[in-house]
Model the fold of this input.
Amino acid sequence: MSRIQSTFAALAQQKKKALIPYITAGDPHPKHTVNLMHALVDSGANMIELGIPFSDPMADGPVIQRASERALAHHVGLSDVLQMVRTFREKDTMTPVILMGYANPVEAMGIENFADQAKTAGVDGVLTVDYPPEECGEFVALLKSRELDPIFLLSPTTEASRIDTIVQQASGFVYYVSLKGVTGSQNLDIAQVTERLLGIRGKTSLPIGVGFGVRDAETARQVAEIADAIVVGSRMVQEIENSSEQELLGNLAALTSELRAAIDSN
Amino acid sequence: MQVYDMPDERGHFGPYGGVFVAETLIEALEELRVMYERYRHDPEFLAEFAYDLKHFVGRPSPIYYAQRLSEKIGGARIYFKREDLNHTGAHKVNNTVGQALLAKRMGKPRVIAETGAGQHGVATATIAARLGLECVVYMGSEDVKRQAPNVYRMKLLGATVVPVESGSKTLKDALNEAMRDWVTNVADTFYIIGTVAGPHPYPMMVRDFQSVIGIEAKQQMQEMIGRQPDAVIACVGGGSNAMGIFYPYIDEESVKLIGVEAAGYGIETGKHAAPLTANSPVGVLHGNRTYLMQDKNGQIVETHSVSAGLDYPGVGPEHAWLKDIHRAEYVAVTDDEAMNAFHTMCRTEGIIPALESSHAIAYAMKLAATMSPEKVLLVNLSGRGDKDINTVARLSGIEL
Ligand SMILES: Cc1ncc(COP(=O)(O)O)c(C=O)c1O
Done:
């Protein structure tokens, strides 16, 4: 059983939902990333989604774009990101880490080399935003043969037949993008998400994470009623952006605790 | 007989092209692919396209024998395909007319576009005005500054120009931003991409709409000189004017196809926009796999060319394929060489060429000098240089 699977299994037993905060590796400075990851876990995160900075983050809104720019100002590359995961694993061997990024940095490293290094660093899942399943068969096979979970997005516009194709390739969980748009857009429409999730549940037993529109604790609570995992990205990154170095860990921990409490209040 | 048959049904040109986008855009691209398949051979659609090309754009564009330039060089004879004479002053409008007609057929009341030099933005704003569509153009804030006259032209035509502040604030970032708009507004919006890049079906569709250039040229050369040229030469930014003139010639193996990229300050300086000539690594950007200027971490690097329309780190996937199969050859000329060609063209032929097209002219002049006068070169004069006079004046130390 992969670390992602066992985490979901354990949470299910406790009747709890997974909280997955997203931060971009190297934002605001590479020296903070590992500490931030630990702080998120200590304050209630069940998994961490760690963004690989990219010069052209086409699917991201302005908040996460700026996070990439801050990280790139410190020349944070994919090997640095993997090193951060390795360092994180020195103290935390339990919490799954999911890398989220774009295809080009992965291809620049070489997909097989990346899969090897991700495995040894202690990565658990990989979400490559601009790799739809049709274009990444070889990559998915490389991940799976190393027991890394390929995470795929499903969107409000994904056709039923396509959902079948995607859930066949996916493992760990599937990630439902709750709105039409980029990361950090307006709040999601809970009724619509509920209906879509029912459709997806009919096609897969994989846990479903929901993200892209969870902006506050109340939305997180509502999503927790229907999803298995709640991914909070832009809101986290916004907190990083608005915090001084001294406040950084405290503010992120406080926000995570608030989200945790909201999710658990159901 | 047509032998060349690319791309495959999912938009691959060998290992290049494809559909590399987030799931949120897949459905929109699928809808577009299906609609384009429906209309690309539809006689009514094609008739409407042809009508607009004739009456609105002013096609066919003539072929012009540059006698004085050819004699001055004393080598091969140089002919120009005069895309500079099109309405709005460049080849770009051929494609925007095609895509806007498709948008209308698909019932999309709003079109968006990215633009670098502003030519594609102007061409999109123009056809949007003609068809009564709302138009939003994304343009890097650096380019907004560099291309002020075109920004004002777009506004006159009723378009909204949105300056893009992210990344390098140039064409590639404008493309990112247009994609972001599109995912958010897919239901009512058609994204008119300006070159043979982007996810499938764009590279194929833009090529098809632009291939009117090559189809006309083949017929016109036959009528004018009774044969086809020895080589066809075109500048390559994303590669749409080049694909447009190359495509109908691909199966004519006696005709050399030469794409001219921007060498900027020189390939060796790294400050250029010539991924094919420099043999940049293959990667994924803007929805397709192609040769891509990037650093060792796979971050896209900033490019440089004096010509904003060529200032792009990637290149259309079909060019990547034509390079690999050696059907086309790719070379690059520097800013200085292009500027020289620009001035020579102005004074010898009475034609002010676009700085983009000046790259093709510069290479044609070099190549012609090595050939005999029986040989014929056909150069795609992709646009006129009125938009560039501020840049040229500035480089000559003149304040306009
Ligand atoms: C006149 C002209 N030629 C060429 C180009 C480059 O584009 P492409 O390589 O797609 O033809 C541009 C782009 O703005 C242009 O305005």
